[in-house]
Write a structure and sequence with these properties.
Helix content: 25-40%
Radius of gyration: 20 Å
Largest sheet: 8 strands, antiparallel
Structural class: alpha+beta
Strand content: 15-25%
Number of strands: 8
């Protein structure tokens, strides 16, 4: 990575950290720890951290008492064209206070097709699910049998919208409010809606870049005039287009 590219990526990651701070403080309150962007070489880690650069969880209250916490961590890099900042990996883990294992793990891995890049893992137990995980004689169940250990529901990667339509931190916060009535700051919904709109619009733009011909057809159907480029942009192979990845 060239020096000017590294500097530009640092600036974009710092702005992303500020956006996440604005989101979490606007929803959960001004005491929420600030996000920082830390250069790790070819990638930049964005997360709430202490002064000693140790990752800090975000406390979440219910009824005025701390009941949950969030571990939020992003790893950022340039996209394939070195034009847009991309998320290389993202983790949003929901914890019950005082319990080491998370309740839920929302995760994203940019390079992954199998398991799906965007997935959620649930830390719970159902006998029926454990049985299904040991039932088949091929694939992941067979791998588990080879290791001769009890299967866990938390090992299942539940797909959540693919690489372009995956949930964001905003969706997790909205889920926690809807299901657990977490404590929120005055005006939190306006803040969350604004950030969620920006996230969905950004992902829509990425999807359009993945499928410009389809986007052009939709716009023409709405009455827009769309002109083909004189010099078409280089297109990745169909199997490399993330819009179609699981």
């Amino acid at each position: 990575m060239k020096a000017e590219e590294a500097k530009a990526l640092d600036a974009l990651a710092a702005d992303f950290a500020d956006q996440l701070t604005s989101l979490t403080r606007g929803v959960l309150g001004e005491d929420t720890p600030r996000f920082h962007a830390i250069n790790m070489g070819s990638k930049i880690r964005v997360s709430p951290i202490h002064d000693d650069e140790v990752l800090q969880r975000i406390p979440v209250g219910i009824g005025g008492e701390p009941r949950l916490s969030l571990m939020v961590r992003f790893s950022c890099c340039w996209d394939g064209s070195s034009t847009f900042m991309a998320t290389d990996q993202a983790d949003v883990h929901v914890f019950y206070v005082g319990v080491p294992d998370p309740l839920l793990r929302y995760e994203y891995v940019r390079s992954s097709k199998e398991p799906p890049g965007a997935h959620v893992q649930v830390h719970a137990h159902r006998d029926e699910m454990a049985y299904l995980l040991r039932l088949a004689e091929k694939g992941r169940p067979k791998q588990g049998l080879k290791r001769n250990r009890l299967p866990q529901l938390s090992e299942m990667h539940l797909p959540v919208g693919g690489h372009r339509m995956r949930p964001a931190l905003e969706d997790v916060l909205l889920f926690l409010h809807r299901e657990f009535a977490i404590d929120t700051a005055p005006g939190w919904k306006v803040v969350l809606d604004d950030h969620l709109r920006n996230w969905r619009t950004m992902q829509l733009k990425a999807a359009v870049r993945d499928a410009p011909d389809d986007a052009a057809r939709v716009l023409r159907g709405l009455g827009y005039q769309v002109t083909e480029p004189t010099v078409p942009h280089a297109r990745p192979a169909q199997e490399d287009v993330k819009l179609y990845w699981p």
